[in-house]
Amino acid sequence: MQTRNKGSLFGRILRPFQTTGAGSIDIESGMIAREEGQYDRAHEIFGALAKEGNAEAQCELGRLYFDGLGVSQNFVTSLEWARKAADQNHAGGLNSVGVCYRNGLAVDADLDVAMSYFVRAAEQGSVKAMFNLGNMHDLGGELAHDPDQALSWYEKCLKADGSFALAAYRAGVLVLQGSDPDPDRAVGLLQIAADQSLADAQYTLGLVYDEGMGIPVNHAKARTYYLAAANQDHPAAQINLGNLYNEGIGGSQDHQKATEWYHRAAEMEVPAAEINMGKQYQMGWGVAKDMDEALAWYQRAANGGEPVAYLNIGLMYLNWDDIEQSDIDAALWLFKAAECGEPRAMRWMATLYDEGRGVPLNSVLALAYEQLAHDFGEATDGAAWHEFRQKLNDAEAEKALALAANWSVGMPGLRAG
Length: 417
Description:
66% of the residues lie in helices and 0% in strands. By secondary structure, the chain is mostly helical. The longest helix has 14 residues, at 147-160. 47% of the residues are buried.
């Protein structure tokens, strides 16, 4: 199974950003101490200056409490110091207060207040605030999704700091997916982020070259970018890289390397990777053929609610001689997959009802499931549909097609009785 999942940075809490422009040597010493991991010393320096009213120090002290560096993490204390800096119109302090209001840290979440602080900080050149404003418009959910506004803020961020990796990555995605895509520009933006080892950007570039998203397909480049992201434990990149190795696309075929990459992703409990591990054992690709091990991997994915795993388990019980066959168990697993909208499972349920294997013989449900398989995207030549239709009178056929027309994912699956 080849799965390309777009991985996500969207849900992470954005840390406050503080400017580190020219300041006193004491501020610089505090910065150096923090960067070197001397958090007690940094706290001492920032604390002394903050009490004297130094806005930069107040902002940096708030950050230590926000991140729990050298002190217990304390969002209340962090916000108190950030407010003191913000009261002096310090860009970093304004942004930090905005972060707290955006995420409901030490205060009730309030997006309007958060945006007002971000805008004030952005007006003073805070690139982090510019990114936060873009991100709020980008994600949708906090605000209505507005890709134009999001891209505008990301571009302002990049104009101020052309190396801002997250802004370049998200801008690249928006340019690639927009109503008027510009693949070359998108690749350039994504490359900025990829050059800074941002795994999501590396993965996305791999996908662009793998699928030829507005540019010529280049599977060798896709491998290179997937590998960079996979080495950072990006599970979708690991799966896609494994797929290329499995199929010998973009380079030599190597089932063993494919299995190794699938296994790394499967260790993170990614269902698609667990399914692929099951397939490797089922087919004996890169590992010794082992049906029990294949079934165990499929079961792991099934425990995570993956419909394709239900399908594969059902087919193993139905068709594979290396495990004890059971039409009843096969029907149970295939039914679960069909209930989730898996069209291949729907076709198998049609066959089972037509033949009475593991379920009562029921020609009405056979036609209903065959129709559902077609409706949910399974490519068919229509031969089975016409075969099932010929076994029914007009009233029975009308009932079968009505069952299919009125069913949708989330409803109980169609079954006899």
